[in-house]
Amino acid sequence: MANRNVEKILVIKLSALGDFVLGLAAMKKIREAHKKAHITLLTTPPFEAFAKSCPYFNAVWTDGRPETFGQWMALRKKLRAARFDRVYDLQTSAHSNRLFHLLRPGPPAWSGIAMGASLPHRNSLRDSMHTLERQADQLMYAGIWPDAPTAPGTAPGPDISWVWKAQAGERPVAGAVQPRPYVMFVPGGSAHRPEKRWPVENYAELARILYGRGFDIVIIGGVQETPLAHAIQRVAPRARDLTGRTDFARIAVLGSKASLAIGNDTGPLHVMAAAGAPTLVLFSKASDPSLTAPRGRVSILQADRLSELPVAKVAQAASLLLSDKAGAA
Questions:
Q1: CA atoms of 116 and 100, how far apart (whole Å)
Q2: Cβ(129)–Cβ(137) below 8 Å
């Protein structure tokens, strides 16, 4: 099917936040390849507002993770009724493969890894590629990105300037006292993955050090991570607790103006890196940064156990990133 005849497109991207942000690079390329098409995103409720503000989609559906038989059948009916010409499955999971098989016989042209897909991503090495290069490669196999950059580290990162440009750019008032530069902290992460968290007492000590060097500290995360912010504030009382108070767009705006973002391997770090913040990501052996790390002005520190990563080493890496930003300013 020629790209010019593709009028109705479905893009599938369900979770999680870091993966969703990385997927925005491929979503942008899909929009560029199908400028006049009506593009629907199939996702989940946490990404609804963020996706609806994105210029790549005409519609956003949030029922992408049905659980009951009735929900599966309702989604199948909805997908069939939409009569999509092409599907770009950027989730490429057992779940999204099941959606493909639900639409048999006669599924739409399908880019992904489902058995029987008409635009299969056949690269046997795909699972060892970073998400950005892997999805660029997928779109090359789909025929819409013939010169896709697929060598390690070459694919462009996500562009989320559409989020924060509209809210940034406020001119400072002449003679007004300017706020101190600030560093964003993301001390939380998935509750079921404690091995991916640097100890909160280390964040507290790092906050004390950076505040002493002239930086305000802004802590973000979900409301369930408010106790972590309070633990940091006991050591660095002037740190600002914004846990539970920032949506994805607000995180992007804060990141676009931050001197530095520091945190565990979790979604908000991807948002801030994409917004342009110099970003320091702390990885344990539970994750592979060569596959999932944010892209941008990013430094990575990794230890088998994050409890073994000393504060001094993180403070040194932070200082280097801050120096690089000052030199680039």
A1: 9
A2: yes
Residue type at 91 in one-letter notation: Q
Query: H or E element: which one contains 136?
Result: helix 131-141
Cβ-based neighbours of 123, under 8 Å, separated by 6 or more: 129, 137, 141
Q: Which domains does the chain have, with CATH numbers?
A: 3-154 (3.40.50.2000), 178-328 (3.40.50.2000)
Tokens of 267: 């979604």
pLDDT tens column, 139-194: 999 999 999 999 999 999 999 988 866 554 444 444 444 578 999 999 998 877 88
pLDDT score of 84:
96
- State whether residue 255 is helix, strand or coil: helix
Continuous segment of H or E residues that includes residue 8:
strand 8-12
As a residue count, the chain comes to: 329
Residue 252 contacts residue 49 (beta carbons within 8 Å): no
Residue 113 has pLDDT above 90, yes or no: yes
Helix pair 94-102, 69-82: axis angle to 10 deg: 60
Which pLDDT score, from 0 to 100, does residue 15 have?
A: 83
Please spell the DSSP secondary structure of 159-176, one letter per residue: --HHHHTTT--PPPPTTP
The predicted structure's pLDDT at residue 3: 62
| Torsion sign, CA atoms 124, 130, 131, 133 | negative
